[in-house]
Design a protein that fits this description.
By secondary structure, this protein is mainly alpha-helical. The protein has 2 domains: 112 residues, Serine Threonine Protein Phosphatase 5, Tetratricopeptide repeat (Alpha Horseshoe); 27 residues, no CATH class. Helix content is 69%, strand content 0%. It is built from 8 helices and no strands. The longest helix is centred in the first third of the chain and has 14 residues. It is elongated and about 60 Å long. It starts with 7 loop residues before the first helix and ends with a helix. The relative contact order is 0.08.
Length: 150
Amino acid sequence: MEPRSEGAGALEFERARRALSMDNSVAALACLERALGLEDNPRWYSYLGYCIARERGQVSKGVDLCMVSIERDPDSGEHYLNLGKVHLVSGNKTAAIQAFREGMVRGWSAEIVEQLKALGQRKPPVIGLLARTNPLNKYLGLFLSRIGLR
């Protein structure tokens, strides 16, 4: 963690991070709103974006807030982590994986690794010469999975 100033906004932000680490996004949202009311720090916007998307369902606003944080601090993996979480809230797994991977490029994070592991990896197609979307590959893969050979 980076050292932070001991202002009231910074203390509220740390409370929000602790609440998020305990998976309490409601408390985190309240702390973030108080923190941003005391001190306008664009680095905190990605956390607010994730909380707003998760608790209020405002995914596009959440993405916008994450993008503001990324524009101001592009080398911070935590913003990409929050952006990926926002995409997961919306059900956009492809965009979430892309954000997590970009976050890994910007800075390694154990939480990003956990998210990527939770999303899993796809197995290679049964018949490598055919496209993954080919019906033969699709149904043969499903069949082999059901009988436990894949």
